[in-house]
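User: I'm writing a short report section on ligand binding and want a predicted complex to refer to. Could you take this sequence and S-adenosyl-L-homocysteine and write out the structure as tokens? A short remark afterwards would be nice.
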Amino acid sequence: MQIPGHIDPLTTGTVPLRGGNRIDLVGLTRDAIGGVLVEAGLDAKAAKLRAKQIWHWIYHRGVTDFEAMTDIAKTMRPWLTDRFIIGRPTVREAQVSGDGTRKWLLAAADGQEYEMVFIPDADRGTLCVSSQVGCTLNCRFCHTGTMRLVRNLGAGEIVGQVLLARDALGEWPKGTMAGFGPDPEDDDADDDAGHYTADGRMLTNIVMMGMGEPLYNFDEVKGALKIVMDGDGLALSKRRITLSTSGVVPMMARAGDEIGVNLAVSLHAVTKEIRDEIVPLNRKYGIEELLQACADYPGANNARRITFEYVMLKDKNDSDEDARELVRLIKQYKLPAKVNLIPFNPWPGAPYECSTPERVRAFSNLIFKAGISAPVRTPRGRDIMAACGQLKSAATKPTRAELDRIAEEKQAALG
Ligand code: SAH
Ligand code: SF4
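Assistant: Sure. The structure tokens for the complex follow:
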């Protein structure tokens, strides 16, 4: 197992190309697409124009076939097909929960598996995206943390999840593209390009809350989210994207400055003793340091609050005293905060139980009474193991001894 440092402990490594020798354009910036087109032989001006067109087809229209790019000269399309692909993760398994939640088990080009979850609600649809295969951390209540095999996902693999969800939900815009009429320089481009109308969206929000710690894969997560937010493509507002971290303090300011999405922090405990146990990263970055980083988080204010996630574990972190201490800490650091109480979602071999509904309600009420919003998150997709913390791509039940060994190895690697 590789030794994680405190920042970006893993590299994405060399993943074999999905399209043989062809380059997958998904995940590249617009300039990088231009760059590979130049390398393939186009002059700079042509490459820039083509990159712009291709970008629009990939991220605005969801096209995976160069032949469908009607504003690109017919003769040029096979040239592109020979050299490039617009890839998607392979779907190994797709499941639908009784409550409408959908979970996909995906495989990368190297066979590594990861999961994504779509949670439909009356007023929104949230895609829960993975940033790593597994996780180098080992929060004791989290199934993903029991995975031994870990690698970072690349920007293309992260944004690929969003593209795949749009495919599966069948919600790419129909019609033709506004502002992308046939290329005047190409006599043989199709002449059917006109206008399209954007239709209603099911996928409205993204949460980086799938497998992995996104701030341990900063560059790729940033690259992917920049693509997702790009106005000429998927165009999701940063206000509709939330990044959840277990508390990688040194990367939090950069996340705010350079990505600018909403922040969620997996707090889960208010004393050193308990947080050290359940979120072992706390031994490296303690509660005070973490809350100070939250107070300094760029862009957080009363209109854009930081979400504190708090998993409810029976007789572990769920007393009235814990609730009062949580309120005290939020006030001490003057945090624009809301608290999200997550009933613990069980998984095979998990060492904890969920707090009783009465306890969860009492805990929530105490926080509400102090003027801080503390809704209880309704578990979604539990029947297909799609709820928070249940994701794990190889569903084996490890023995307690194995769980302890994995925890020890990961803790030793944290230093
Ligand atoms: N690694 C990131 C994001 C992924 S987890 C993080 O830890 O913040 C998304 C949320 O689900 C986190 O708050 C995580 O602590 C929580 N979670 C993990 N396991 C859980 C479980 N078994 N039941 C309920 N919530 C869980
Ligand atoms: Fe990793 Fe988040 Fe699970 Fe902790 S809760 S092990 S940081 S995925």
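A remark for your report: The two ends are 14 Å apart (CA to CA). The first strand starts at residue 23 and ends at 24.
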